[in-house]
Design a protein that fits this description.
Layout (H helix, E strand, L loop, with lengths): L5 H12 L2 H22 L3 H15 L5 E11 L2 E11 L6 E9 L3 E9 L2 E11 L4 E11 L2 E6 L5 H22 L1
Antiparallel strand pairs: 1-2, 2-3, 3-4, 4-5, 5-6, 6-7
Length: about 180
């Protein structure tokens, strides 16, 4: 059989791929919109990278002193408990990290990291111990008490404010006990 001409090949290509071209353009548009939306929630990458390096350094700082407090909780006839671990410099009493665990109906863990006395990073996890299902997993980056980046499906400004308030209460509770 004779080979089709380039014009015929081109016409066949367009006819068979005409349906996929709008799909291709919509995918490109969607990805572009998602990228723009994400950049409005994100800080300059050097700020986030700097916070990440401070968090990693704090996690591995063996010179910090730990203070542990735990107790029982009860809410709506459900009994559970909490555990707070504060990592601080024993000479200056400056707090660098707080881990707060709470178990009632669900398990919740909040982690707070500080630099120069200010909250710079917080994470929140929530899980159902019965079904071993993770219900929430969010991360927040802060600069001057303002969210500069949120990570996670459940991340929101309201959740960030609640975490910031909890971080301040836990830190103030620790500071009050040191005075």
């Amino acid at each position: 059989p004779p080979s089709p001409s380039p014009k015929t090949l081109c016409a066949n290509f367009i006819r068979t791929n005409l349906i996929s071209l709008p799909l291709l353009f919509s995918v490109i548009f969607f990805v572009n919109c998602k990228t723009r939306k994400a950049t409005t929630k994100s800080a300059p990458s050097n700020s986030v990278a700097k916070i990440d390096s401070v968090v990693e350094a704090t996690k591995t700082n063996s010179a910090l002193t730990e203070q542990v407090k735990h107790g029982l909780l009860e809410k709506d006839k459900i009994k559970g408990g909490f555990n707070t671990v504060v990592f601080f410099d024993s000479k200056s009493n400056q707090v660098y990290r707080i881990i707060y665990d709470k178990q009632l109906e669900y398990f919740e863990r909040s982690k707070f990291y500080y630099s120069a006395g200010s909250l710079i990073y917080a994470s929140y996890e929530k899980g159902d111990p019965k079904t071993k299902t993770k219900l929430a997993d969010t991360q927040y980056y802060f600069d001057n008490k303002k969210v500069i980046k949120m990570v996670g499906d459940n991340a929101s400004q309201a959740s960030a404010k609640e975490l910031l308030d909890n971080a301040n209460k836990l830190k103030q509770n620790f500071d009050a006990k040191k005075d």
